[in-house]
Amino acid sequence: MPAPLGASIHHPLAAAMCCGAQSGVVTSMSLGGICDEILLQTLGLERFHGVTILGSNSPEWVIADIGAIMAGGLAVGVYSTSSPEACGYIAANCEANVVVVEDNAQLSKILQVQKQLPHLKAIIQYRDSLEEKRPNVYTWEEFMELGRTVPDSQLDSIIRSQCVNHCCTLIYTSGTTGTPKGVMLSHNNGSLLPTLKEVRPTFLFAVPHVWEKMEEKLKATFSQSPLVKRKLVEWARGIGLQASYSRLDGSRIKQPDVEGTSELCCWGCHVFMGYLGMEAATQEALDKAGWLRTGDLACCDPDGFRYIVGKIKELVITAGRKNIAPVPIEEAVKREVPIISNAILVGDGRKFLSMLLTLKCKVDPESGAPLDELSPEAMQFFQELGSQATRVSEVLSTRDPAVYQAIQQGVEQVNQRALSRTHHVQKWAVLPRDFSIAGGELGPTAKLKCRVVLGAYETRISGCYQD
To answer: Sorted alphabetically, which keywords does the UniProt record give (predicted)?
Structure first.
């Protein structure tokens, strides 16, 4: 990690970090100098102990992250929306010596669990003034001043002692399926920089939920825009999103079934080192040869292209012992019925498949919670059907004939293209509200918590299977 900061020697005035219009640009030389000054050993940081960073995106966040790595510690980012208990668990698990927080609200979370953190030696707050002075709690300015008193030779010695295969950062899983696990990543990036120069990538990557929400926002914004803007959006949509990736020497499909579908495995220097302090979980994720079991279901076409079609843990196994990947069916329904926001296939241990659906609605800009009011896209779709509904509750209370008929027709279209009758969705139910992080149905990274949803709507699901 320290190597990229050497760019300050050759390109001292090059932009290393942009901080918005008001804060301006931090040059390579300035960033390198700042990172040199934040010697965390002055606060008692030991090698391979954590430095947890709790706050929103900011220059201080980036500087603390780089500084932790340069000092031989483990940089650990924590979601700013995490509860005090979640913050405490991560800080304890990585044996954090230092915690960096954004403001008094985030500081309060750490103070609530401080007694559970035996390795904690210092807390640094980089925004707002401290509400009260506490032992070993520093402002950002106080922390920077401590670093300026340390000779450069001490930092150089620490950097020289680091190896490419040393762990330098931890990324904790969202905990969607259980306790968060610390994913260990080393300094080793292989030939990333030369590869980027050669390939010059033009693709952006994100989980599907992010793209879906961006599309909804664009549609809502441009539905009332002039014709030229709408045409521009339609042109941009033609670029498309790719749901597959090309042949890679570092990946394989392990023991494919008769349909060519099985678990996707990866191998290479991009694969993580293991889970911190969790040997059993590491052995479950990595085989003896170092292949990562991704947990993704994938298939391969005759041209060698591989497609991810779902998760092994999400497989629906019916009462007839048929294994069904839910994602292709769920996505097909959403394409046929564009007012559907989320679709969850149900059928584990059941005689047939059913589906839970949510409608697209507006979202509270402050809390992120879904509102009862339908989205502009949904209302336009309803009007074209002849429905006057403007709220989800109206659709449910009247079982709006036009809306329910449109959904049923979409489901029937999907069933006609199904691999077999066992893949047919025979019943479905519309839920009273969409899923969200605030509601607990989505994790911090917008991953759907299927078990949470299935548990919350168990009665509704049972109703689909009553004779």
So the answer is: ATP-binding, Cytoplasm, Fatty acid metabolism, Ligase, Lipid metabolism, Nucleotide-binding
Task: Write phi, then psi, for 234 (nearest 5 degrees).
Answer: -60, -40
pTM above 0.70, yes or no: no
**Number of residues that make up the chain:** 467
The CATH homologous superfamily to which domain 249-311 belongs is: Luciferase; Domain 3 (2.30.38.10)
**What is d(CA 151, CA 183) in angstroms, rounded to the nearest whole number?**
33
| Closest of 418, 389, 205 to residue 322, by C-alpha | 418
Q: How far is CA 429 from CA 83, 411, 417, in A?
A: 33, 12, 21
Which tokens belong to 414?
């999907």
Q: What architecture does CATH give domain 315-464?
A: 2-Layer Sandwich (3.30)
Alpha-carbon gap, residue 357 to 341, rounded angstroms: 7
Q: Residue 112, exposed/middle/buried by CB under 10 A (0-12, 13-18, 19+)?
A: middle
CA atoms within 13 A on the CB side of 419: 10
Q: Are residues 139 and 125 in contact, defined by beta-carbon separation less than 8 angstroms? A: yes
* 248: pLDDT strictly greater than 60: no
- Give helix 401-416 / helix 376-385 axis angle, nearest 10°: 90
C-beta neighbour count of 140 within 10 angstroms? 16
To which CATH superfamily is domain 3-199 assigned?
ANL, N-terminal domain (3.40.50.12780)
> What's the pLDDT tens digit per position in 193-222?
566 567 676 666 666 666 776 677 666 666
165 CB-contact burial (10 Å; exposed 0-12 / middle 13-18 / buried 19+)? exposed
- Cβ count within 10 A of residue 127: 15
Residue 263 pLDDT: 82
CB 164 within 8 A of CB 187: yes
Nearest CA to 423 among 355, 359, 338, 334? 355
- Indicate the domain borders of the chain: 3-199, 208-237, 249-311, 315-464
What's the sign of the alpha-carbon dihedral 215, 221, 227, 228?
negative
> Tokens standing for 371?
């509102």
